[in-house]
Structure formats: C-alpha cells, structure tokens
Amino acid sequence: VFWDFGTTAASSHSLSPDTCLSKEVKTAYFIKETFSDLENNLATGKGDYLQALNTLMACEAASQNVRRDYAEYTTTRFYTSATQHQNAEKLFEIVNDNLHSAQCNS
Question: How far from each other are the two terminal CA atoms of the chain, in whole angstroms?
C-alpha cells in the first residue's frame, strides 16, 4: 500500500515479507480497498466493514473513538476538497492515532 503523505503504511517488495503481514499494513490495505463501503458503515455506525475494521484494530477503546473522529473530519473543508484516496489516508491516520492514544499495540 502506498500513500503519498509519508504514512507508515507504505510497503514494497523490498521490505521483508513479515513487514507486509503487520496489523498496520493489513489495516491500511483494508481501508484503501473497502473505503466507500467502510465510510458508509462509519456514517451509520454499523455494518460488516466497520465490524471488520474493529476486528483488525483489536482494541475496543480505540474503536469507540474512530467513528467520532472521522465524523468530525467530514465536517472540515479538507474533507470536501480531498480525493477519496486522501480521505482513506486520513481515516488510516485517525485509526492509528486512536490506537496510539488508547495505548494499544498497532
């Protein structure tokens, strides 16, 4: 997964195979590949994609805040002017920030 704003989700075949199996990379890939459906689930607060994201995060304390934080982001001018790719990257950032704040291993 390559995101161009310097996120740690970037990986390539030059990295070890174990790096590509990390929870962070799996989460980044999941967000990127399912973003439209996941964003709809975030808006409604339920759905298979949101449930899968919560499972990937494996941290209830962090999961509880992701929906709130992403909803706050959607009210900003950055959200409305961003591409879907940029909004997916922002969601990944929100997930990681919440994992870190909740002191969950990412």
Answer: 16
